[in-house]
User: What shape does this take?
Amino acid sequence: MKRLVIVRHAKAVPYGYDDDFSRALTGKGETDAQIIGRHLQKEGIQPDLMISSPALRARSTAQIFAESLGYPSPKIREEEALYEGLTTGGFVQLLHTLPAEAQTVFVFGHNPGLSYYVSNLLHFFHGDMPTCSTVGIDFDVQSWTEVEPRSGAKAFQLIPSMFNE
Assistant: This one.
């Protein structure tokens, strides 16, 4: 089995689109990412690989999760295409390139792309993907090259508003 954990970046400051790439997380965004990261750690969900959009808000969210999960921050792989936008087919192609030894892979990025990926990888998903929404998708495959659209099963969906900390 392979598990993909898709994370929409946490709440960011609303600069608008003049310098979208450099938008930082708000205090609430940082707190939300810590809450979700700690919950995943308590549940024993450990990444073998983390991949992030290079945009500041996504990278910052990934770093907070990495700290909570004991993943070395310098090993977070940046993927420019996660910021620029991929079709679902392009995203599946990215998954096909993942190393065979990675069982659990976290991907940090942006909407609307992440919502499309989740919707198209699962048999059925009509949920919302608010900031810091985290969706685990399990694939009954031995290799990432076997992952196909609509072949995943939702393992969990976490939203910061679910937690009262």
